[in-house]
Amino acid sequence: MNSVPGYGDVDAADRARRTARRALMERATVREVLMGAQDNLTNVLAVVLGVTIGAGRADLVALAGTAAAVAESISMGGVLYTSTQAERDLDARDAAADGPPRRDARLGPAGAAVVTGLAALAGGLVPLAPFLVLPIGAAMAASLVVSIAALFALGSATATITRRTWWRDGLRLVLIAGSAALAAALIGTVLRVD
User: Fold this and answer.
1) What is the CB-side half-sphere exposure of residue 180 using CA atoms within 13 A?
2) Which of 14, 57, 110, 188 has the largest count of CB atoms under 10 Å?
3) Neighbour tally for 53: CB within 10 Å
4) 137-184: per-residue pLDDT in tens?
């Protein structure tokens, strides 16, 4: 035990502050990270699978995948900016009519845009990475495996924050993305251009 009087109280208060700060950051950013990373990882995976199957050319896969990753990250950042601003505007309107606004632990519009945009860009690069180092057939398979693993990890990490079942949330993200990837693969097969 510590012989300094009151030292344990300071440690406990410091731990409580750190725990509260961590909970606030989790609540403030989990929505933005999940929306950006899951959405763009899913979209870019679907694009690269569809283009790989439909065109069979690595240069087209790189072009389409990169364009989708960058455009989607900018778009998602913009969507979170405008939706967060709209939430704030509604809160202000309601406060004018009903009293003080509710205070959620959320990022402001600019913060939401930056976090979501960066998470979307990071997520979008995951399915593209194998195409930088592997031949197109192997890259397509590796992209699918790496993307599924990343989506499962993202869902599992989110579940640990929200205190849900980790494997169920991981599987849910994989199934959602798998549906989009399957649709894109079918479109690439049907509309094949090579």
Assistant:
1) 20
2) 188
3) 20
4) 999 999 999 999 999 999 999 888 888 899 999 999 999 999 999 999
pLDDT digit string (tens) for 79-126? 889 888 888 888 888 888 887 766 666 788 898 899 999 999 999 999
pTM of the model: 0.78
Q: Whole-angstrom Cα distance, residue 142 to residue 1?
A: 53
Distance of CA 54 to the CA centre of its chain: 27
Instruction: Locate the domains of the chain by residue range.
Output: 28-190
What does the block give as tokens for 7?
A: 């030292």
CA nearest to 36, candidates 76, 69, 71, 75:
76
Q: What are phi and psi of 103, to 5 degrees?
A: -115, 100
d(CA 145, CA 126): 10
Name 155's Cβ contacts closer than 8 Å, sequence gap at least 6. Answer: 38, 166, 169, 170, 171, 172, 173, 174
Query: How many Cα atoms within 13 Å fall on the side-chain side of residue 117?
Result: 15
Calculate the alpha carbon distances from 18 to 12, 29, 173 in Å: 10, 16, 30
